[in-house]
Amino acid sequence: MELDLDLRSRRVLIVGRFHESRRAIARYLAAEATVYLASPTPASKSGRLQVVDYPTNAGEWADIVSAVDLVVAVDIDKKADALLTAACTARRTWLSREPATAAAEIGRVTLIGGGPGDEGLFTLAGKAALREADVVYYDRLAPHGQLDRWAPGAELVDVGKKPGHHAVPQDQIERMLVASALDGQNVVRLKGGDPFVFGRGGEEVIACREAGVPVVVIPGVTSAIAVPGAVGIPVTHRNVSHLVTIVSGHAPLEERELAHLAGLGGTIVVLMGVSNLPHLAAGLARHGMAPGMPIAIIERGFSTNQRTTIADIDTIVPVATAVGAQSPAVLVIGEVVALSGHAAIDLAELAETSAHAAG
C-alpha cells in the first residue's frame, strides 16, 4: 500500500545520527515539512533543519514526541527505540522506522554551473544533483537563494569570492571538496555561469582526479552568451559577425593580446573587465580598432537592476565613469552591439544633463 501524505508545515521529528539520516531529512524537507533532528551524536543546524536535544529518559521522550505530528526513527539503539515507542503510543503520535543511509567509502564531487543568476536558467540536471547533496560549496554569483529547498538537508558552505577578495583561497576550496568526498559525502560545487568559463572548474576537476575522487561536471549557461542575449545583443549575426572571442578582464591584457584582439574582428566579450576598461579601450584603439566601434557595458545581468550602457570605444571610459559603471558586468565590443536597439550615450549630452542636475 502506498500513502500520499501532504506534509506541508507538518512537524516531523527525525531520530538518528545526521549522516545516517540525511536522506530522510532531505525527503521530508523537500515535502515542505518542518523538520527537527534529535541525534545521539553532535549535529549542527543545516539550512531549514532544526536540531534539538536528544532525549535521555521517558519524560523527555514524552515531551518531544507530543510536540510533533510524525516521528521517524533511523537506526537507533534498542533502549532508545523502546522509550520512543512507548512515548509515541502514549501520546498517540505516528511513528515510522527507516533504514540508515549507507555511507560510501568514497563519495563524489559534482561541479554545477548555476547560470547567469536567473533561477529559471538553472538546469534540471543541476537541481537533480542538488537534491542528492550532503554538502554544497557555493559561490557568491551562483543562484543560492533557494539552496535550502533545492538541497534539503545538505550542509551549505559559502566560499564566495568578490573582486580582489577571496574569502576562501582556491587551493583550500579544492582541499575541502576532496576531504568531504573522501569522508563519503556527495559533494556539490555550485558556481556561477559555466564552471569551465573562467570558473576555475578545471582546477577543481584535476584536484579531485589526483585524489582519486569521482567527479562529474554539469554545464551551466554562461553569462558571456546569456547576458548580451538578455539585452538583445547576439554575439554572432549573419553578415555582421561570424566569430566571438571570450576574454577574462580581471587582469590587464598584454600588448600582443591587445593587438590580436584588435585585428581579429568579430565580437569580443569581456568578463570581469570593468576595472580594466581604460587599459582595454586604450589598447584596442592603439592597435587600430576603429574609434567608432560600439561597446556595451551590461551590469548586473538578469537582476532587477540590470543596466545597459552603450558608447563608442573612444568615449566609453568617460561615459562609464559618468554613469558609475561597476562590477559585475559583461562588456561586448563589436558591430553586433548596434543590433540591440539601445541608443549610444552621447558624451556631450550626458555632461549637459549632469550639469543641469547639479544646478
How would you characterize this protein structure?
The chain is of the alpha/beta class. It folds into 3 domains: 11-98, NAD(P)-binding Rossmann-like Domain (Rossmann fold, 3-Layer(aba) Sandwich); 108-221, Cobalt-precorrin-4 Transmethylase, domain 1, CATH 3.40.1010; 224-353, Tetrapyrrole methylase, C-terminal domain (Methyltransferase, Cobalt-precorrin-4 Transmethylase, Domain 2). It contains 12 helices and 17 strands. It has helices at residues 18-30, 58-65, 78-91, 124-131, 147-150, 170-182, 201-210, 223-230, 255-264, 277-286, 316-323, 347-358, and strands spanning 11-15, 34-38, 50-52, 70-74, 94-98, 108-113, 135-138, 155-158, 161-162, 165-166, 186-191, 215-218, 244-248, 267-271, 294-299, 307-312, 329-333. The strands form 4 sheets. The protein has a 5-stranded parallel β-sheet, sandwiched between helices. Helix 2 crosses helix 3. The longest helix is centred in the first third of the chain and has 14 residues, at 78-91. The relative contact order is 0.10.
